[in-house]
Every structure is written in structure tokens, then in C-alpha cells.
Amino acid sequence: MGNVVVVGSQWGDEGKGKIVDWLSERADVVVRFQGGHNAGHTLVIDGVSYKLSLLPSGVVRSGKLSVIGNGVVFDPHAFVAERKRLEAQGVSISPASLRIADNASLILSLHRELDATRENNAGTGTKIGTTGRGIGPAYEDKVGRRAIRVMDLAHPESLPERIERLLAHHNPLRRGLGQPEIDAATILEELTSVAHEITPFIDRVWRLLDQRRKAGDRILFEGAQGTLLDIDHGTYPFVTSSNTVAGQAAAGSGLGPSSLGFVLGITKAYTTRVGEGPFPSEQDNEVGRFLGEKGREFGTVTGRKRRCGWFDAVLVRQAVALNGIHGLALTKLDVLDGLDEIKIVVGYRLDGTVIDYLPASLAEQRRIEPIYETLEGWKDTTAGARRWNDLPAQAVKYVRHIEELVEAPVTLLSTSPERDDTILVRDPFQD
Ligand code: GDP
Ligand code: IMO
Ligand code: MG
Predict the structure, then answer these.
(1) Which candidate in 41, 111, 294, 343 is catalytic?
(2) Which CATH code for domain 105-200?
(3) CB 294 within 8 A of CB 37
(4) What is the rounded CA–CA span in Å between residue 280 and residue 283?
(5) What is the pLDDT of residues 283-331, one digit of tens each?
(6) pLDDT tens by residue, 404-415
(7) Is the distance from the beta carbon of residue 16 to the nearest atom of ligand 1 less than 6 Å?
């Protein structure tokens, strides 16, 4: 198949960054195709930790081309800050190693302010718990056909007209929220002050990817967030504002869907969620605290404590179908080491009826009761295992049972945050 699409199969933070970094050794190009700097991907290489939000996780390897596709909402000031932070760690980011799609939409400070104001004004039950990065408002402007785009930074003469159009929408909105209006000069300054930092990276990404594909290069697509945060297929309205499913890799990069290749679903061996919204297998108890502490479940972007619960096979099976997942990368198995027993959600009860899917309605999602199966835990450690044969028998049984329940094979297994603590079962680039 050649290319690989990495997607999160739960609510994000499944370990996509670690797996993309590991797989990028085998790739030539790494592409982000949705989301923005709401993503938080942590890579650990020889004990050194790298935190990425907007940049593709391929940037830490030299000799790879990183690409930010048109499906991403791009905050130029966040880009400059992240580049600076990574360069301080010795990661070089130059126009030769990174290209940014000319047709990606920008996130501006007014988007961040609107995101924060809405969240602060929201009452109990309506707050989303966003990352506060302006993601939702920026996508709204894109769909509303008034966004300022990356290419506009290279054409300062076009900016006044673009800004006027944008403010014709935002200033009435701000007045309604009791906020001061913004004048065009402020936005112009926000953009022109940063334009020179961005313009050397701007490219016609659809053509670049087409050329790389024709040259036989291997392209790795890096999803952000997770399937259950997808704007259409997730736990709406408690979702992010983009399509996070594998299909978006094509629309969000400009490479046709026939070239996408192997779809790899990154899957945590239990479940976590940051922010508000339904979470059927949540364990707000000792088990949840154990998983949170052992798994160090704190958000990379906002530092918030992640909610924790048992593995939910119903949700992951749904994600397998929604993404067309060919194989799973199962991460954080080591966090389960030492538990006497481990539970898995195998179905839900809704108003007395057993169902095998997550209903689309929020009211129904709130009413479902999970049905659990209990498996024996293991006392030996899986942490740092690099060979399948080093895993305790009960851990192997757990993995095999997950494969059966979600109807997808495990292709990769991750046993610690370290890059090399990864077991390759089947090479997704070879399929
Ligand atoms: P992403 O958003 O999907 O890239 O995931 P995050 O980076 O936000 O969260 C995953 C966290 O788990 C990071 O801190 C990783 O370093 C860490 N991690 C990844 N794989 C493993 C694993 O197999 N075991 C353990 N213990 N930690 C892991
Ligand atoms: P990675 O790529 C986990 C969640 C937020 C909130 C909702 C909407 O690290 O897996 P947004 O700021 O996108 O409008 O917030 O989505 N969220 C994530 N949760 N991991 C992420 O990214 C997330 N990106 C957004 O917590 O509930
Ligand atoms: Mg994350």
C-alpha cells in the first residue's frame, strides 16, 4: 500500500506522537491534515522529552519532510513559539524540512478570545472544556468563507480587504458579548509582524504530495485528536471542530484517497478523555486514580487531569469501522501491570435493551450503561518489553481478546514512552 494514515481511535492522547515518530524512520514525508495546536503529542527519545502541538511529529528526525496540510488551522504566532522551543532542544526546522499549505486557514488572537469568552460564559452542561486555542472559531470562519489564509501573508496588499470582511462578522459578535471592537490596524499588525517568519515555508502542498507520491516516496499522515472527537462521528457537541477520521487525510492534504494506504488506529489499552462530555467506562474511583497516576494522564497542552476508565471495545470497534482501520497500535499496556483484574466494556444497555454501538444522540449516550467482561490481570511487568515473547501470558490474552472484540489485528505494541520500547508485529508500510 505504501502510505500510512495514523488516527486516534478513542478521545485523543492515545500515543499518536510516539507511534508517528517511531514509524517516521520508515517514511519520507510526514503530514498533518486537521486540527491545530490543540494537539499535544509527547515523544521520548533517549530520555529526552519533546512536546509538539502544531508541527508534525516527523520534525524531530532529520532528513524527513514535514508538511502542514490545508485541513489544519494554523496559528502563525504559535508556530513561531513552537519552532523556537524545539530549536532550543536542537531540532532544526527550516524551509527545506517543513512546508505549509498556502490554502490552510489562520487562527488569530480574536479566535482565541472568542473561544475563551464562550467557555467562560457557558453554564454547567454547555461548557465543552476546549483547549482554548481558538480552534472552533477559526474553523467557523473557514466554513463561513471569511477566513484569512496562509497565502494571504505573502500578499500584504490583499490583507486590508480580507480583514474588513472578517471584522464585519466579528465586531457585531463582540459587541453582543460585551467586548470592545477590534480595529483593522490591530489585525494588520498581528499578521504583518509575523508574515516574514511564515512566507519561506509556504507551498502548493497538493502538488508537492502528488510529486512525492509519483517519485515513490512513503507518506505518513499524522492525525490529531481522536475518532470520538470527530465533528460528525464523535460525542457531539463535546468534540473538536474538525473531521478527525482517516477520510480527512485526503481532503485535508490534497492527496487523493486512492493513495492513502494502510490505516493504523492508535489505541490506548484503557480509555482517557480530557474536557467535558459522556464517557461510559469512566472510573471516578481508585481504578481511575491508579490509571491516571501510573499512566501520567495529564494534558500536554493544558496540563489538565485526564479522566480515566476501562477499555471500551464498543467504541474502538466503531472507530475501526469509521476509519477503515487495518491494524491497531496498542499503547500503554504497561500501565495495566500489577492489576488483579481488568475490565473491558463489551456492550451497552440502553433503556433495558442491549446495544453494540454508541448511539448518536447525547441524551441516549448519557443513559447507556456499560456491560463489562472481567479478565485476569498480570503481576509481571510488560514495561519496556521489546519482544512479544517477553509478555506475560495474561497480557497476551488481553491483547488477543481486544483484537477479537474490535475486529482488527494489533500491528504495533507500545510498552513505554521511549521511542524504542515498541514491538513491531506487522510493518504497516509493507502491507
Ligand atoms: P497523542 O496526543 O496521541 O500523541 O498522545 P500524548 O502524547 O498526548 O499522550 C500519550 C502519553 O503517553 C505521552 O506522554 C507518551 O509519552 C506516553 N506514552 C506513549 N506510549 C506509551 C506506552 O506504551 N507506555 C507508557 N507508559 N506511556 C506511553
Ligand atoms: P491530541 O492530538 C485530547 C478536546 C478538548 C475538548 C474538545 C474541544 O493530543 O490527541 P478544541 O480546543 O479542539 O476545540 O477542544 O476536544 N481535545 C483533545 N483531547 N487530545 C487532543 O489532542 C485534543 N484536542 C482537543 O479537551 O474536550
Ligand atoms: Mg495528546
Answers:
(1) 41
(2) 1.10.300.10
(3) no
(4) 9
(5) 999 999 999 999 999 988 888 899 999 999 999 999 999 999 999 999 9
(6) 999 999 999 999
(7) yes
Contact 259, 278 (CB under 8 A): no
- The pLDDT, as a whole number, for residue 281 is 98
Domain boundaries, the chain: 4-102+204-424, 105-200
Q: Which helix (H) or strand (E) holds 78?
A: helix 76-88
Output the pLDDT for position 430.
87
Taking residue 155's Cβ as centre, other Cβ atoms within 10 Å add up to 11
Q: Is 130 near ligand 2, meaning CB less than 6 Å away?
A: yes
Is 129 annotated in a binding site? The answer is: no
Amino acid letter, 22: W
Place of cell 521511542: 419
Q: How far is the CA of 140 from the centre of ligand 2 (A)?
A: 17
Segments of the chain with pLDDT less than 50:
none
Interatomic CA distance for residues 235 and 274, integer angstroms: 13
Q: Return the residue matching grid coordinates 505504501.
A: 2
With a 6 Å cutoff on the Cβ, whether 241 touches ligand 2 is yes
DSSP 8-state class, residue 68: E
Write the DSSP string, 13-61. Answer: -SSHHHHHHHHGGG-SEEEE-SB-TT--EEEEETTEEEEESSS-GGGGS
Fold of 4-102+204-424: Adenylosuccinate Synthetase; Chain A, domain 1 (3.40.440)
Residue with cell 489538565: 304
- Going by C-beta distance under 8 Å and a sequence separation of 6 or more, which residues neighbour residue 243? 34, 71, 230, 231, 232, 251, 252
The H or E element that residue 344 is part of is strand 341-350
Which residues are bridge partners to 343 per DSSP? 374
